[in-house]
Amino acid sequence: MATLLQALAPAPPPAAALLAHPLLSGAPSSAELHAAIVELEQATLPANRAALDAARRALLAELAAQQEQSRAHSAALAELPAQLEAAEDALLELCTELGLDDAPAGDADAEAGLSRSTPAPDAPLQQLLRQRDDVAEASAARLYLTLLARADELRDAVLVPGKSTKARLEALRTLCALLADARAACAADEEELETIAPAAAQYLVDQRDAAFSGLRTELEDGLKTALDQAGWPPAPAEVAEARGEVTRTGAEVLAAPPVREAWLRLCRLQRVAVRARLVPPPSYEASSEEPAGAVSYAPLFATQVLCAPLLARFAYHFDGNKSTNRLDKPQWALAHMSSLLRLHSALFTPRGAVFELFSAGGYAGVGPRELVNALLVPLRVKTQAARQVLQASPAILAHTVGALLAFDDELRGLVPSLGPAERLADTLLNDAPTFDAWLEGERSEATEQLEEILSSPDAWAIGPADTDGDDEPQTWEAAALQARTAGVQTTHSARGICTLQAALAERAAPLRSLPQRIGFLAIQDELLRTYAGRLSRSLDAFESLSSAFARALPGGMGSDTGEADMVRGLRGSSRLLKALLSASFIEAHLERAGTEGSAVQLGADLSLQTPEAQRARETRNAWRSEREDREVDGASLGELVRRGMRTGVSLRPLGGGHATAAPAAKTAASEEDADVWREAKVRFGELAARASRGLERLVISETTEAMRDYSMRHWDASAPSRQVSVEPDATEDSSGADGSPDEDDPSDVPTPSLIPSLSLLSSHLLHLVPVLQPVQCLPIYRAIATAIAGAVVERVVMSGGAHRFDAQGARRFEQDYTSGWLAVVREVSASATQAASATGSRLPGVGRRPEAPWQRLRDAVVLLSLPTSTAGATASHAAAAAATAERLGLSEAARGVTLSQATRALFDEPDDDARGWPALRATLDVSEALELRVARELVRRRVECFR
């Protein structure tokens, strides 16, 4: 305490402040004001000095009196122990004389009488204790007054304008040290100062804060004045030219000497304040953990003064009643701040004017982070103030969030070395009610767009031209999606769904919170499941009506109806084609979307074994289960039966468990899969495969049904219904047709009863091949061709037993193959090649060898059309055989093979490599898949074969 008292020795009194004097009415000139101020100083200064001297003398007298009184109390306290000992001795002697030490303890009457007859022995002691307390209070009061006086002196020293900045800063440091010493003294001597310590400390804090605040305001005003006089902020070049002023840059303005001096003084003040812990350390370094624009960010004083006029202009335009302050145009305010950042960020770069000023002021390495913080603060405050209003306007809220997300991305592009910074979008997204309002608005908007897509007249139109609407315009224009899918045909609805999903994914990509991204993922899941349900119900209806998916019913129960006409022919294939194109297009789109960075990151975050990821997976599984429950509850009985037949399980069986237990378990088992679109891709892949199988079955069914008359005709001249010719070589020359003149006409190629099948096949393939991609078309074409070729062999050749074809009938059957089936193949191949060249594909839709799937039919034709013999044949027979070999593309060796040779190879020497079945198969270029048993049956169909 003695050290503190020595430190608090009286200091020279400061100069007294001038008294304020109200100005007279009117508007005096500056000269008059200056004269009035000089006169006022001359009139009041002596009086003030006299009053100050009188107050100083009174204070010194009071302090002297207090010191004298303190010395008297100290002397009294020094004599107090001796007085206490004397009083105790006198008290003991008195007790001994009265015999009180031998009195019985229970004699209450004697004690009462003694107390009434003798004075209280502790009266002197109480008086001495009170005197000691008075001395302690006097000492504390003296210390208290000394502290107050010293604090007042230091505060006045800080606030006196006439002193140098260095002396004023030194006084501020002394005042801060005084507060620290006083707190330390109070902590070390609690008994002495326990009553006045809190009040004294608070008074010192108030004096320190007042001194710092006043000095900071004065220095900031000085810098502001210097900047105003230097011309900050500089006017744009076009404005300066219009005013006739000299165009100046920001660096030229900040290079003015008054600006530099005021800047350095303010920097010195901040350094002193930081060391005295009046303000936190500045956060201008990029390595600082405090994000720019946050409340916890500590800016530099000079930056705040520098940006004040810039922010005042922003407030004028975007915080008042100006027409530029519009809630639905947040991009205006953001663009204004972006332009300010672009315009002035060069000042904060190395060797920039602001960078150099701060380096001279002791803050090296100040970068654009300071400017970004100054610009972000008003934007953050403005966004926070608009949250309640935005929650009531989902459309404006979504627009605002999008603008803020774009601004956050742009900001990091403008300042790559920004470091941690407040994201303006988080001001809205981290507020649960605001984010929920935005998410609900996005869900409602997505639902409305989905309904608009599905209810559009051209929703199921294929590309720019479709058989259902050739004149319908292209309605969906998504540049990025069209660039990726150039030349890919699909329905407008599928393209619209992909565009909508991509837009939702794009809006969710900047979100950093996993629960927030899961919310958008749920909207996309709902969107895709709804569209998949629409496709599934369409396929269900088609399968219910189409005869291609039902067995023949007796009694005409499967007769033609108007509804059945909608699933036949090109109308039926168009419906299946649209479902296939839609499902496959969305599946391919999801495959690409799953490889994008945001989807990969989302899948990785969902796969983490963290509590947040676990909750997100549980939330998503709950949404899926709820959706499946709604689908099952809303499904019809027929749909449930079909779904159960497809999946092999029963949905909601009587006495069974939960309907969605199996799907939910499947989802839980695969939750480690990082592909967020895995389930959706599987769903649309199954729909595409289902539509593809439907196309195959429809084309095969209609084509084979049209061959009914063709499969029942006779192919040999000895049939009972035939008119047998009496001309020579009737066996070779007789027609393979029945009694119908059209069927018997050799020039009618292909056979007239085959033309309906050929027409249907050609129509279907020409409708499918130009639209489908080769990767989609080729498997469908091969399946159709293979099935039809097998049906022709089974129904026409194998059915009906042996010995059904003579030479002429075999030749007509070969012509039906080469001029009928292969003619359709060549026509479709030409169309596929043209479509491939138009889209830039190197592979046609039917492959490079479109006749390959017809190999089974070709093998049957080759074996059936073998000549009976090559020797002794007439010229016409030889020419016909040569034409047949030419059409089938047989080699010279194959043209010499006769029916009898083939019979011996198949029946007599089948295992002989030189003359048996292997050699015959190689010579005739027959497929290795053709079994010996089948080859024998084919040869036995010729009437000339006696096996």
Automatic annotation (TrEMBL):
Residues 649-670, 718-754 are annotated as: Disordered. Pfam families: RINT1_TIP1. Gene3D superfamilies: Dsl1p vesicle tethering complex, Tip20p subunit, domain B (1.20.58.1420). One of its GO terms (biological process) is regulation of ER to Golgi vesicle-mediated transport. PANTHER family: RAD50-INTERACTING PROTEIN 1, RAD50-INTERACTING PROTEIN 1 RINT-1. Coiled coil: none annotated. This is Uncharacterized protein. Residues 659-668 have a biased composition (Low complexity). InterPro entries: RINT1_Tip20 (IPR007528), Tip20p_domB (IPR042042). One of its GO terms (cellular component) is Dsl1/NZR complex. PROSITE patterns: RINT1_TIP20.
